[in-house]
Amino acid sequence: MTDKAMKPETIAAQSLGWIDEITRAVSPPIHLSSTFIRDPDNQFRSGREYARSDNPTYDQPEAVLAALENGKDAMLLASGMAAATACFLALKPGDHVVIPKVMYWGLRLWLFDFARSWGLDVEDIEMSDLAAVKAAMRPGKTKLVWIESPGNPMWNITDIAAVAEIAKKAGARAVADSTVSTPVLTHPLDLGCDVVMHSATKYLNGHSDIVMGALVTKAEDDYWERISGVRSRIGGIPGSFGAWLLLRGMRTLFPRVKLACANAQKLAEHFAKHPRIEAVLYPGLKDHPGHAIAARQMSGGFGGMLSIRVKGGEGAAIATAARVKLWKRATSLGGTESLIEHRGSTEGPGAPCPMDLLRLSAGIEDAGDLIADLEQALDGNS
């Protein structure tokens, strides 16, 4: 069976079915060598030269990711931030980039605090407003439009295909952060994006035991070559063991994400009218402003992430998080365990995140247990 004939669930579960040619092992070896032997005539016929440029342990997870995203090539990087920033570092001073107002706060801070200092022209807009996207375009000047959908931590929905088309008409590339949606639910390259980015720390690995990033490209073009150069020259590479753990984690990607989506949907529906909750932010709810677009571009679920705004403000939200017993009070998302976080405390001053907001990463536990624990935590606000 060819790769194209395999369903994505099979691609992930069998990691493309690769078998180690030397040992015939189902689980691949971990290559720890930092350097590789030259041939007597000074050539590198193995294709390997030095581990900062390449590592055999990357081959299989990169191939699996490229197949799952319907891309031409993929690369692993040291973290989600390393992957995201590489997309901007591959640009030139003076280039104009457009980003959403609601997005991963760490990247937003880097863009305004660092990228602007070396010459990138960074503009943030309401990305769900297509008129605002069109108005922001500067043909010949705009080089990259960054899309994050659902947008962390408010879970705004962007019409990926429409924004990618606007970017294309202006001569810009569209890059999508699909960390939350994962290739289980959305395929940004099929919707017109040029590159898709993942914080592989999250759902791709799924076990909260590595830090890693990944990029997948639609075309192996000059932009992709520049990104590859950024990874090598800056040294933003992951370790061999982390790459191996990522491959292991991706084998269960589909059942994990589907169960997390089902749990998030149950949580959102249960707490949507709760007397101690001001609002539930989740695109799977029919009254969410981006629900129709999400239903069109997300297949099989609306993601495992949701947020609740607690009545009583910041103090009540923090107190609620303090009382949970099953949920874990921790940053991050996409693991098997459910996490709760007062996001405003993490993001700090200037963030668009309301201070009464708790960000929830639904894990794969029993949904009834998760609901009951959050219920008792909210009851303490009476």
What topology does this entry show?
Layout: H1 8-14, H2 56-68, E1 73-77, H3 80-89, E2 96-100, H4 105-113, E3 121-125, H5 130-136, E4 142-148, H6 160-169, E5 173-177, H7 182-185, E6 195-199, E7 213-217, H8 222-234, H9 240-250, H10 253-271, E8 277-281, H11 291-297, E9 305-310, H12 313-323, E10 328-329, E11 339-342, H13 343-347, E12 357-361, H14 367-379
Parallel strand pairs: 2-3, 2-4, 4-5, 5-6, 10-11
Antiparallel strand pairs: 1-7, 6-7, 8-9, 9-12, 11-12
Helix pairs in contact: 2-9, 3-8, 12-14
Description:
The chain has 14 helices and twelve strands. With 382 residues, the protein is α/β, with parallel strands linked by helices. The longest helix has 19 residues. The radius of gyration is 21 Å and the shape is globular. The protein starts with 7 loop residues before the first helix and ends with a helix.
Number of DSSP E strands: 12
Mean pLDDT across all residues, rounded? 95
Tally of discrete structural domains:
2
Please outline the major beta sheet: 7 strands, mixed
User: Strand arrangement, largest sheet?
Assistant: 1-7-6-5-4-2-3
Question: Which percent bin holds the helix content?
Answer: 25-40%
- CATH overall fold name of the largest domain: Aspartate Aminotransferase, domain 2
CA-atom Rg in angstroms = 21 Å
- Distance from N terminus to C terminus (CA atoms, Å) equals 60 Å
**Strand-and-helix sequence, N→C?**
HHEHEHEHEHEHEEHHHEHEHEEHEH
Q: Could you name the CATH class of the largest domain? A: Alpha Beta
CATH architectural category of the largest domain: 3-Layer(aba) Sandwich
